[in-house]
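Data card: per-record layout.
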Amino acid sequence: MMRLFATQSKYADRLAAAVESENSCTSKFRSLIDQISMQQGKIMTLEEERNHLNEESGQLKALVEDLERKGVKRLIDKVQEPVAAVVIMACNRADYLERTIMSVFKYQKSVASKYPLFVSQDGSNPNVKSKALSYDQLTYMQHLDFEPVQTERAGEIIAYYKIARHYKWALDELFYKHNFSRVIILEDDMEIAPDFFNYFEAAAALLDKDKSIMAVSSWNDNGQKQFVHDPYALYRSDFFPGLGWMLARSIWDELSPKWPKAYPFILLMSLFRSYCFVQFIVSLEPFLKGSSMGQYFKQYLEPIKLNDVLVDWKSMDLNYLMKDKYVKHFASIVEKAKPVYGNDLILKLNIGGDVRIRYKDQSDFERIAGMFGIFEEWKDGVPRTAYKGIVVFRYQTSRRIFLVGPDSLKQLGIKDA
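The structure for this 417-residue chain is written out next.
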């Protein structure tokens, strides 16, 4: 009996194990069925998403095709390289800044991809910052410099040191951080002319081809309305006027390590090789609230003539401005001008045609310039706007007047009359 009971217990245990195994298999089978059902649900969801995406893709494709048909084709796989970044240098004049921005927007809208606009503020004036940030069409940069200014000489204006620091910081940002190949620098008291951007695009080609050109400017110091009569006139100059000028990265690579603590103009003049400029920009009210305390404004800046002729510079052949060609081009014009001598020079201008007037030295130049009312100032031994010591302007008519230095004709290869 004991052996029979042991055998029955053994079979009972095996039967219980078999039942438990069957229950486990059933549970796993049901779990597998549940997983398959879930996967089938996910598959159905993914198929629905795929169909939805295909539908959206079709709608987007139709929209792109519609936009292309309407002439609003966007560059997707090929991004156009900008001609130049445009930076407005600002500090604490929100009203001036607004006027400059609106002037730029007036002509930049159609070429915005070629000329991305930046405002670089020196300091933390809240009105300037708020004004700049109120425009989605531009990028705002802020230069915060808390390092005390130590002037090198007693009595120097601290603002000139701050301006120098701001310019270096802003140009480093645009050339090295944003990687632009060219930058156009405007100040916050400028208005631009209708062909401003067309001019700089044409000039960019000159800047790339002729390495003797350090920068391209759209400002003429003697651009007052009584001295300009030709909106197509372009000149090279040995004088750096600034105010609306374009600089290439290759030149900034040279300038940046040498940038001075103040008065960068001196550095630019000392490194200056040659320069193109045209009367394109007019100043609004520069220096009245600025660092120069109104110097020159009433006499020279307020009467500046803003160019109002829409010149298509890109369609013009500007190769005559290349270094070797320009010397011959300019020499031929100067040589044809009739020499005028003696006192009462203005009374002798009734002869008609271009004239040239010799000056002996700086004081003599200042005397003659004062008679006509053009800029008398020199910097680093160079009169404003001069090329080979020659200053050219038009006096009340289309007649050109050339103020010719003591060695100018020799430099141009012209025999002295």
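Known properties of this structure: Confidence is low (pLDDT under 50) at residues 70-78, 272-293. The first helix runs from residue 2 to 69.

See the next section for split statistics.
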